[in-house]
Design goal:
The chain is α/β, with parallel strands linked by helices. Residues 547-598 form the GH29D-like beta-sandwich domain.
Length: 764
């Protein structure tokens, strides 16, 4: 499929909606949707500007005014007038008494009144002023000279409204972090959970232990030179954030009502720290900084010297991060090294601890006492429930909802970030032009419609659910533009789910408001995904192969799709797609979705031939095992378009459904390869072969144990960068419609994983 460069088209507002409440929300285009909206027939004329005067005693109003000026500049909206002689409508800040939120925390609520005479923002805190100003900015951005008169009473549904970013596997720049904080604030998200340490990298400067960053902050390139390509970065890969950078980021976040929660992993995911200081480990002989993904068995030991080290680290961490919570990880801590370590076993016997899970509970309890003694609270992944939960710990539930339910029933606070649907490193649509990420799909609708309060909990137990968080892990999300694509706009859906009352949310209304939100995101220099709006074209051959049945659809199913078949660009008067089209082959379809007069996403231009109707991208194929796969780029991180391959590492095997073999005379595979980079437990990573591979793809009919249709040698793609089209293999002797299984046989070179990018049948 050929697409134009990703960019948003000018936004025209559409106020039509299904429900009366949604009509008011759409008309003011505020995201997340306010809790209560009352519109009136009046308008505020902004052609003379909007003047603001703040009392010298109201420092909060003055600082929020400066922040609002910056927001208006990003959308090229006229600035506020600050002269006292202006006769323009006035913006006024009014302080009110604080209200106690139902879930604790600070009062972040506000009231926003827009009348023909001016604007009033009423709140009990700077956070309320800030959020009222953000809602006003959203109404003013790209407004045609006036905005609706409206009364808004608004406040958050949840106390914890978060985004987690993994900066350990692949590190982002300080500027990127600041951009992300801007986006979060503009969507009333208030917690930035920052994953700073991992097996593959330690990203926070600790003055007392410099080798954590000088050694643990860098690793060899994830891919070797033969795999990386000629323009890949060379030398060690990594870096770290200095303490001065962190102080700047924390202060920047505070100005936007965002608390930064650092994560320092323990007792597992600790390889980088233990390569730097091996005496703290539970086993000897670490080979060096790891370059592969997966679960490593390396654990901190349980000696007093190790706790002294961790406490010294957290002392510096707490000096940098003044927030209430310190995240200590606790996930995926394989216990093999503790089981094999005589000192650990002796410690368990001394303490009367019966198994290694209970030993982790003791480990976390000791760290929690230290954290509590410094006026902070410990939070960890839901594995900290194993072996017994520390007395005051907060559980972050990622393996579904069970961890949160268990914690709340025990009287502990919990935060919901289940991988389905709140992990944003999962792909967001089934389109073949999506960037790399995990399977299956966590769509925009999945995020928006997530039920955040488990029905199995009583009202008192539900009060322990502090909130929700979207999380993005960076193993396969290599670059900053990819992170933006995966985060935005799913973070906006998360924000509305976290902020707006459950009975006030409506997905279709959210989609009506989304084009304006996407425009503001692009105004700020960020690159949101347009997956929910972009047209996907699917064509299947009919008859003798001289025609095809063409289907057009969008993921969001909003508005109508307009198209052309004569090569001309799509306009809002082009024909409306109303059902499958019979088109001659070859043809060229152009298509674009519209919501009223608002163009959604970008136009597509796709040439349709008999060969293209038979072609399958690996992202259109099923995994033979039925397991979720990984869509990954082949080489080290850099901002460039790279081929994406879909694979299940443990079984590189793909199924082409309903192949019409009467139309096939041969088949060409587009293949690539990587060194084996995924591990679990003590399984060693096999080394890639140094000799030309004898691996092959065996094509079976009907099942992976069915008759062999053909075989394809893989040697031409061995140690080649990118996608290598292999010589076509003839397909003969079988007719009719069958499933085809494409299975790699690779017994001589287990250190290489073979990747399929496409299957291109040769038409008869």
């Amino acid at each position: 499929m050929s697409r134009t460069k990703r960019a948003l088209l000018p936004v025209a507002f559409c106020s039509a909606s299904i429900f009366a409440t949604s009509q008011a929300q759409t008309a003011i285009s505020v995201t997340p949707a306010p809790a209560h909206v009352e519109t009136s027939s009046g308008m505020l004329d902004l052609r003379r500007g909007l003047a603001v005067h703040t009392a010298s005693s109201d420092a909060d109003a003055a600082s929020v005014t400066r922040y609002l000026q910056g927001l208006l500049a990003t959308t090229h909206t006229p600035a506020l007038l600050t002269t006292s002689k202006s006769k323009a409508p006035q913006l006024t800040f009014v302080h009110r008494d604080a209200r106690k939120p139902a879930q604790g925390g600070n009062d972040e609520s506000y009231a926003l009144d827009v009348t023909p005479a001016g604007v009033t923002i009423t709140a009990a805190s700077r956070a309320g002023y800030l959020y009222g100003a953000i809602s006003l900015w959203q109404m003013m951005a790209h407004a045609p000279g006036s905005i609706n008169a409206v009364h808004i009473e608004d406040g958050p549904r949840f106390r914890w409204r978060g985004i987690m970013l993994d900066s350990a596997r692949h590190m982002q720049s300080e500027q990127f972090i600041l951009q992300l904080l801007d986006y979060m604030a503009e969507h009333k998200l208030n917690t930035f959970h920052w994953h700073l340490t991992e097996d593959q990298g330690w990203r926070i400067e600790i003055k007392r232990y410099p080798k954590l960053t000088s050694v643990g902050g860098f690793r060899p390139q994830t891919m070797p030179p033969w795999q990386a390509g000629s323009n890949a970065a060379t030398g060690p890969y990594g870096g770290f954030y200095t303490q001065d950078q962190i102080r700047h980021i924390v202060a920047y976040a505070k100005e936007r009502n965002i608390t930064v929660v650092p994560e320092i992993e323990m007792p597992g995911h600790a390889t980088a720290a233990l390569v730097a200081y091996p005496e703290l480990g539970s086993a000897k002989g670490l080979p060096g900084m790891p370059v592969g993904w997966g679960i490593y068995p390396t654990l901190f030991n349980t000696d007093d010297a190790t706790f002294e080290f961790l406490q010294n680290v957290l002392t510096e961490v707490m000096e940098l991060f003044p927030g209430e919570y310190i995240h200590v990880g606790g996930d995926e801590a394989l216990k093999d090294q503790w089981k094999a370590n005589p000192t650990v076993q002796a410690k368990m016997k001394e303490l009367g601890i019966h198994d290694e899970d209970a030993m982790q509970s003791w480990f976390m309890g000791r760290m929690e006492k230290f954290i509590n003694a410094h006026g902070r609270r410990l939070v960890g992944w839901d594995e900290i429930l194993q072996g017994g939960l520390s007395p005051n710990a907060t559980v972050m539930s990622w393996r579904g909802m069970e961890g949160a339910v268990s914690a709340a029933k025990q009287g502990h606070d919990a935060i919901l970030t289940p991988n389905r649907p709140l992990y944003f490193n999962y792909r967001q649509s089934d389109a073949t032009d999506e960037t790399a990420g995990r399977d299956p799909v966590n769509s925009l609708a999945d995020v928006y419609n997530f039920k955040a309060l488990p029905a199995t909990l009583t009202a008192a137990e539900q009060a322990h659910v502090l909130g929700v968080q979207g999380s993005i892990w960076s193993e396969y999300v290599l670059t900053e533009d990819r992170v933006q694509h995966m985060l935005f706009p799913r973070a906006a859906a998360l924000a509305e789910m976290a902020w707006s009352p459950d009975d006030r949310r409506d997905y279709k209304d959210f989609l009506h408001r989304l084009p304006a939100d996407l425009q503001r995101t692009q105004d700020a220099g960020m690159k949101p995904a347009l997956s929910v709006f972009e047209v996907q074209a699917h064509a299947t051959p009919t008859g003798t192969g001289d025609h095809a049945s063409l289907q057009l659809a969008t993921q969001g199913n909003l508005g109508e799709i307009r198209y052309t078949l004569d090569g001309s660009p799509v306009v809002k008067t082009s024909p409306v797609f109303s059902g499958a089209l019979q088109v001659p082959l070859p043809s060229e379809v152009h298509a674009l979705a519209f919501d009223g007069s608002t163009a959604l996403g970008l136009p597509i231009a796709q040439k349709i031939t008999l060969a293209s109707t038979l072609r399958r991208d690996s992202r259109e194929l099923d995994a033979c095992t039925g397991s979720a796969g990984i869509q990954m780029e082949q080489d080290p991180p850099r901002n460039a378009e790279r081929p994406v391959f879909r694979v299940v590492y443990s079984n590189p095997c793909w199924i082409y459904r309903k192949a019409d073999l009467d139309r096939f005379s041969g088949v060409t595979l587009g293949m690539g390869s990587i060194p084996y980079i995924f591990r679990s437990g003590n399984r060693p990573m096999p080394a890639p072969s140094n000799t030309i591979t004898t691996a092959k793809v065996v094509v079976h009919v009907d099942s992976c144990k069915g008759p062999v249709l053909t075989t394809v040698p893989l040697a031409p793609a061995w140690r080649k960068d990118g996608v290598v089209p292999l010589p076509s293999a003839a397909v003969t002797g079988t007719t009719g419609v069958h499933d085809l299984c494409f299975a790699v046989e690779n017994t001589e070179d287990p250190g290489t994983v073979w990747l399929l990018n496409f299957i291109q049948p040769t038409p008869r």
